[in-house]
From TrEMBL:
Keywords: Hydrolase. Pfam families: CN_hydrolase. InterPro entries: C-N_Hydrolase, C-N_Hydrolase_sf, Nit1/2_C-N_Hydrolase, UPF0012_CS. PROSITE patterns: CN_HYDROLASE (PS50263), UPF0012 (PS01227). The keyword Hydrolase applies. Residues 15-279 form the CN hydrolase domain. PANTHER family: NITRILASE-RELATED (PTHR23088), OMEGA-AMIDASE NIT2 (PTHR23088:SF30). This is CN hydrolase domain-containing protein. Transmembrane segments: none annotated.
Length: 313
């Protein structure tokens, strides 16, 4: 029985996770069909948690978001309003896996005041499904990707998208808690630290880094979040396609262990990568380097104790 000296496990039993580094293009129906094929392959390889990339159902770009956006509310949305919602639910159910369904552009239309013009907002939204195909959670990207690196890349998601305003921690009952965020969110350690201190065994980020920042920061950020929090981290990218569009994804989907060692890393093309996660790895990282008992909340505040918004989006 767990005592103060024996912390209760954050990962209840070993589990295999797969990141599907998907090649998607401009045909949404083809992207959904390809994702279904690859989720099947991941499940056949023994994965019980499967991750898809950011914006897996569309090309990634501000010009594309409104065109590919789907309405998710009211829940469950109709197949016409959100083919991706229904396709993801079926992928999870048909394969009996937890599906962290990358992200899709989401459209939300609201009437702010009686008689006012409807207002449409777009979000970059992850949908997480249970093995029975029910929606467990949604995460709207909190930190929008607005950067300007001369000679490198300029991108302004905020020209089109609105930010989400909550932290997302999902309970997978057989395994434990997982923190979900999207791509640029990985640069903000607070989000990760709060999720980890709420008891997550893994932090999962569907992402789509680019050819300027990818080589410098992608693996570094994955390893940094694992190192800070002594838990598993998974980053899942689209495959790189130099023939389509103007945004070329870095690829290199990876899973990092709680000692910040890369367990597996994809190349640039379409690929499914697998990693086996277990509690022992988390516990040995935490007992060997006992950060959890060494924090100095008399010197700095405990961000995980601050009022955190975990309400449904
Ligand atoms: N889709 C994104 O949020 C890209 C983030 C990125 O490339 C970065 O450097 O950060």
């Amino acid at each position: 029985m767990a005592s103060a000296a024996t912390p209760s496990p954050v990962l209840k039993q070993p589990v295999r996770i797969a990141c599907v580094q998907l090649a998607s293009g401009s045909d949404k129906a083809a992207n959904l069909a390809r994702a279904a094929e690859k989720v099947r392959e991941a499940a056949a390889g023994g994965a019980k948690i499967v991750v898809l990339p950011e914006c897996f159902n569309s090309p990634y770009g501000c010009d594309h978001f409104p065109h590919y956006a789907e309405t998710l509310l009211p829940s469950p949305p109709s197949a016409e309003d959100s083919p991706s919602f229904h396709a993801l639910a079926a992928m999870a159910r048909d394969n009996g896996v937890y599906l962290i369904g990358g992200s899709i552009p989401e459209r939300e239309t609201t009437l702010s005041q009686e008689g006012a013009q409807p207002q449409t907002r777009y979000y970059n939204t992850a949908l997480i499904f249970s093995p029975s195909g029910s929606l467990l959670a949604t995460h709207r990207k909190v930190h929008l990707f607005d950067i300007d690196i001369p000679g490198g890349i300029t991108f302004r998601e905020s020209d089109v998208l609105s930010p989400g305003n909550k932290l997302t921690v999902v309970d997978l009952p057989e395994y434990g808690l997982v923190g979900i965020a999207i791509c640029y969110d990985v640069r903000f350690p607070e989000l990760a630290t709060i999720a980890a201190r709420k008891g997550c065994f893994a932090l999962v980020y569907p992402g789509a880094f680019n050819l300027t920042t990818g080589p410098l920061h992608w693996e570094l950020l994955g390893r940094a979040r694992a190192l800070d929090n002594q838990c598993y981290v998974a980053l899942c990218s689209p495959a790189r396609d130099m023939t389509e569009g103007v945004y070329h994804a870095w690829g290199h989907s990876l899973v990092v262990d709680p000692m910040a060692k890369v367990i597996v890393q994809a190349g640039e093309g379409e690929e499914v990568v697998f990693a086996d996660l277990d509690e022992q790895k988390i516990e040995s990282a935490r007992s060997g380097i006992p950060l959890r008992h060494q924090r100095r909340f008399d010197v700095y505040p405990d961000v995980s104790q601050a009022k955190v918004n975990t309400e449904k989006a």
